[in-house]
Amino acid sequence: MMNSMNDLTETAAIDFETYYSKEHSISELGMQGYAKHEDTDIYLVSVSCSDGQGFTGDPLTIPWHEFTGPGWTWVSHNAAFDQACFLSLIHI
After folding, report:
1. Rg (CA), the chain
2. DSSP for residue 32
3. Is 2 among the domain residues?
4. In this structure, is residue 1 part of a structural domain?
5. pTM, entire model
6. CB–CB of 84/35 below 8 Å?
7. Of the candidates 47, 22, 18, which has an alpha carbon nearest to the alpha carbon of residue 35?
8. Within 13 A of 51's CA, how many CA atoms are on the CB side?
9. Which domain holds residue 49?
């Protein structure tokens, strides 16, 4: 049961797309290694939010501040991969 408006959160569905080849793959490099590898091209992200916001495009130009923070919950079909991509983009 919610106690106040501060308990409300928004949900964002996140999906990253990257370059893939047999020579450059998660199976060869591991999830973190792949995401941080210099040859990895994280070229697309799609975000669909419960409040109606959305974004599809270059992950370097996305207004991340609109979808992050204490009021947001992220969901993803392949959460470990998408988290690795996000952390790589913000250099963690």
Report:
1. 15
2. H
3. no
4. no
5. 0.83
6. yes
7. 18
8. 12
9. 9-89
